[in-house]
Amino acid sequence: MSLLVKPPRTIPNSVLGEIFTILAAARDKHARQAQAVPMLRDAVECIKALSTLVCVSQRYKQLAMPLLYQTIVFSRDAQHRLFFPTLRQNRPLGRLVKNVTFFELRDYSIRENQAFPSLIDERRWDNAPTDPLADDVQRLWGALSLPERRELNDNVPEIRDAVLELFTIIKHLPNLMFLRYVGRASPTMFSAVLYRILCMIPRWLALPMVKSLVEMEISGRTCVTWFEKIFGVFRPPMLRSLSITYTGKPPPDKALIKLQDSFSTISTIRELRLSLPHFTSDCVMPVLFEIDDLEVLHLDLFNITEKTRHENIWFAIRSRCDKLRDLRIRFKDRYWTKVQAPHADLIPWPITVFHALAALDLPDALLFGMQLGNERDSWVTALPPSIQVLTVSAWFMKGDIPQRLKELFQDAWRVPKLRTVVVRERLGLLPLIKAELRRVVERYTHRNIAYSHEWF
Q: 418 near 450, Cβ under 8 Å?
């Protein structure tokens, strides 16, 4: 009797599943992180290969189809408009989609207007298409006022249709967990139309769009409107991570975000990243209110110098100190001068109460001005012992960086878990300061603390 084991006639489903997962993860950073899959060199070819495998057999189709549609990236102008009729014909595909990334469309050229038929017909309102997606397009269009509809019909009908179809697609993805919208830094007709329709989003569309969302990343010029809608009409019931970043040149007349009296925060949020020129410190407390388990907080502040406003920020942050593990506060450089440098006295220390804090990122004026106890004590005494990564934005006190870094290395025993120090700067340091920094780092290599330099 032979002791050799006969090889299987077919590849087991478990092995095929692993292969298909690696191919599908080529364009999905979340899947790569979850599966510990490295970034493949040619993501496009991987997806093409997976698409081909779907056609091999019914078995391959059952294994590959959920992975193929799990993540959709609309990175070209026509992609989501091509997906719209596909979803109309095969609505079950929408249940497979969990992650969507949409890159804001450029302005259409005239010759592209005829590429897609329009579902909007003002002259035959009662005879509109009857399938669910087309009906939702028509209903969303009807939510706009008559003057707005006339203006969009006359000026940008093709972009109007593109925006309406985008929102309708999102509504018909019932298992969508991650939504990323990447806007452009310069004004576009698409962002202008998106702003108008986003302001008029009705409740019947808002809830189905966000009911299963766990993570949202919004960037671009319309992010202020997104912020107001997320905390207003949308209110995702399962949202855990929210990132909103304004890109481009902020408007000269920065209209401040005014929270409504009925405003209430989203208590499920665990990670919050906000970079809004319209966002004031008075908004921080209402947004953070009742978020008991906040773990990550990143705030970019724009020209806020009044002491009371600073105190609002730090009071709100300190109220979340129990579980906060990543705190980052940065000042947008174009709005701050050396005269406006914030003073560390405005921070209600000690920051050592942040027992779980592992990553801290502060401007030099705040970080180096910290003091605890005797005036001769080093600023390092005010750092939480749990710190593992410390980032300093070299801005107002560039010349003090080498000495402060030396103090940190000398008193490293106060922060036993510190493993990485990062210095950020926008403009190059003077050659003398650079040389001194190198000497400090080389002198204390025995501390086993990594050092890196970043530019912004």
A: no
456 contact partners, CB below 8 Å, separation of at least 6: 333, 393, 424, 425, 426
Whether the predicted pLDDT of 50 surpasses 80: no
Order of all β-strands in the sheet with 389-394: 71-74, 99-103, 178-182, 215-220, 241-246, 271-275, 296-301, 326-331, 359-363, 389-394, 420-425, 450-455
Per residue in 233-255, pLDDT (tens digit) is 888 999 999 999 988 776 655 55
Question: pTM for the complete prediction?
Answer: 0.84
- What pLDDT digit, counting tens, does each position of 366-381 carry? 777 665 445 556 778 8
Amino acid type, 341: A
Q: Which residues pair with 74 in a beta bridge?
A: 102
Region 157-181 average pLDDT: 91
Q: What whole-number distance in Å separates Cα of residue 396 and Cα of residue 89?
A: 59
Residues 316, 302: Cα–Cα separation, whole Å: 17
Residues 390, 401: contact at Cβ < 8 Å?
no
